[in-house]
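Journal club prep — side note

Before the paper discussion, L.F. wants everyone to see what a predicted structure for a comparable chain looks like in token form. Sequence:
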Amino acid sequence: NAVRGSVMSPEGLTLKFKVDREDAIGLEERRERLCEYLLTKKLQLNVWDGKSMFQHGFATVDLRSLLRQGKDVVEQLQEVEIRRLSDLDPEESRRDQSRRESLKLSGLVEEAAGGQERASLILRLINVGSEKDVQGSARDSVNLDDTKRSLLKRPEVVMQELNINPSETGSLIHQLIEVEKRRYKRKERYAGHEVSDNYELGYKIRQKLHEDVCHVKLMNRENIIKSKLRQKLVGKKMLKARVGEVLFFEEKFTNPRGSTRTFRIEVSDPELSLVLRTEEWSHLRATKKTESIASAPESDILDGNRLFLGSFDECHVPFKYCPMDSAGSVRSATEKVVHVSLVCEATGVVESQIEILIEVHPCVVDQTFNLHTPEYSIFKHRFAIAEGFGRALNGRTPSEVKSIRTNDQNTIVKLEGSEVVVKCTKSGAAPESRNFLTFFYGDRFQSELLQVWRFTVATARKLDISGLTGQTTISNLVVRGSAMSRKVRCFTSHPDEIRVVPEEFTLISDSLSELQVSFCPLTAGGLDARLNIVDAEGGGLVQQILLSARAEDPPVSKTYELAAASGSVHESKISYENPWPARRTFCFKPAHPWLVRVQPGLLDLEPGAPGVVGISFRAEGLDPGMYETLVFVNDVDGNNEDCVRLQIRVLPR
């Protein structure tokens, strides 16, 4: 159980987990898997903005310090860096890099990125050992003697008295329920009598009930005999599996006939399959380190699912079981029954059958990705796996990942060089969401599971906007209210370039509200942004809209060349003339305000009148070289009137 707190509280966020449960069954196995997890895995923490509901980034925590090594308590204080999501997306990372290169500011990368500084989390990890030895709690056995004292018994208790096995009788339970109903009707005939005190009356009712059960048992004698015979033919087996991991085992089949027969092996679950290749059989036996009942792998014993056996011959057949949890329903340990039958092809008779009870446990997810795609579109995304990346596959390089598998049939995941490519089928209408797991294996037979990634692809509306750099373009957006009215606020992922008016409003239920999206790009190129409409009071996400923006540079009318010494501030002046036959007010807006400053920012000019503005260029922290920037000349409404290019040569000191 996890006890949560607020990050803004003085004590911060606290999570407590009780590892050793009171159930002693499988305790040693759970402890072993926990130690293996702490030693080989890393914990991913997704960091979200509580107001805007945007994911700020993620942090990777090394858990090896939690291994107590025989100590009572271990404690460690860690500072982990919060990495941006662009570090995982090669396309977005390339766009950010091209944006920075367009700014020509190799020495001002952090300022060029909008002043976003690297953040970190302070974590205090504590592992406290339990003092008491976990013992299995004794289960209270059912006292049948006390139950027999009650005259009005349940059908299950009656079956226990008469030595009837519920699993053998099939519909016998339902018939006993009908018997019980008739017994209650007979009880009503003796109204006014105390049944519990009248021993003779209770004995007659019990005797009548016994006769009814015997009659039902005679009627179902054929089914009971068949079930008894089936028990002799059916073997039972119990296995434990984990989602995404291959479970390998071998079973022995025998030809009970005195002649050569061809048998067919039928499996009731498609996730349980036969191992048909000898190479794979040997590899799984060596990797899984199972106690094999066969001395050596036999070659060419299977033709698909057909098995050839001589009279009274025995054969060991290998199986592998890999649950993929395609429905996403495995949240805790679940059980399922799989039947493996040996069927004679000539007669169609089941010669033997194995009933396998498999306990399926959920897998450990190493990393999660929250992605978005427009409505009715094919989703395709790339993820980088580079050296030094905090999510390296257990210290392996991407070339050592031999196989990738996903549990969604409508999704393709493959490895191209050092990048993982994810492609999904056409999405539906918003707010559809798709969840799937991706498994990375270290061998081509998928027996060595390295990591598990969980993907969540949410479908959202898309709005296309375009404009010129330095100019504000306004687009209209209509949103529909949900089932209830609420006060909402609008947040954008790139507030320096995209803003929404009104920023806060009341979204009426089942009605339309119009918003104005203003786009003022800083650099040319494409930009994929998001708009979150968040409940202002409850803090939940109401709607999410994708904004696909495209910007182009306006035509340049003049180019000025300047020179400045590295580490200095250069000041110069440029002239501008009003080309209009009327009086106009012009606003001078630099594309890189952290690099160039224009004073004054406004010029009120008569028709054809010239004006002078001052240019201040900061060469502090810049290496010698050629730098280029633009100065946009706009009107009072933000529409672009003209554009001036500044080419600045930074000289060594």
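L.F.'s comment for the group: The radius of gyration is 37 Å. Keep this in mind when we get to the figures.
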